[in-house]
């Protein structure tokens, strides 16, 4: 893990060359004061570098709220991008013609999605909470665990991250789109479709799956299970969320493909419509509202259920 960098405070009257960086939690050791024109660039370089770092790094120094929001945006964008890259990537591996993983089945797909969630949350959870899902974001906001003012930042980052991840999957499997004849198979890499089209039943499937996701995430990661500050909350939390997603996929994923995340479906569906995918068909916009509405309702319901019965 890369060390977290903090900016050393300046002693009154100290020359600029004593404004040094202190790596925390890494093996780089403590930077020594220097007057040489190297990485610090002498007095002028040190002053400029220190000024930039004061604005970009969080090391006990006050920073503008706009930078905090930008940090949240970057974290949610990157996390959702990784989620879709690896999640849609495993679908592509299983369903596209001449892929090495072709025909490996539902267990591989559900496992790939679970690992995608785990990795993505581990990567960005410390910066943004690792929502990566509007249903989670709205659910937390509905019970007061997230300020509503931050919700638009989360949602915009998640949507753009999902679209970017989809583009990367398209590039990773570039020769396979032309090799795959069925347009519906190509669409399945990007977004979900029901096994049986039934508006009420499809919505209920997404509501129930997302209800389990948000309730499980809040209950399993509650202080009663993972004591804050013990190290287990950060060390095990993302892996447990991945297990919840795996369980949902294995048990509840059959009816609709368990989107359980509005941008996981809408972002890639939009990318499918825009990308020049060889031999693609339509993007099935008539179904697109289901994996948006269902997860939002389920996420809010799961969060409310947790507050009512667990009384945190």
Can you walk me through this structure?
Helices cover 61% and strands 3% of the residues. The protein is built from eleven helices and two strands; from the N terminus they run E-E-H-H-H-H-H-H-H-H-H-H-H. Strands 1-2 form a two-stranded antiparallel ribbon. Helix 2 packs parallel to helix 5, helix 8 runs antiparallel to helix 9 and helix 8 runs parallel beside helix 11. The radius of gyration is 23 Å and the shape is globular. The relative contact order is 0.13. The N terminus is likely disordered.
Give the SSE map.
Layout lengths: L3 E4 L13 E4 L17 H15 L8 H31 L10 H23 L5 H9 L8 H22 L1 H6 L3 H8 L8 H22 L11 H21 L9 H13 L15 H21 L2
Antiparallel strand pairs: 1-2
Helix pairs in contact: 2-3, 2-5, 2-7, 3-9, 4-5, 4-11, 5-10, 8-9, 8-11, 10-11
Instruction: Specify the helix fraction band.
Output: 55-70%
Would you tell me the overall average pLDDT? 84
Total strands: the figure is: 2
CATH-defined superfamily of the largest domain: Glycerol uptake facilitator protein
The chain-level structural class is: mainly alpha
Proportion of β residues?
Answer: under 5%
CA gyration radius, whole angstroms: 23 Å
Inertia-based shape: globular
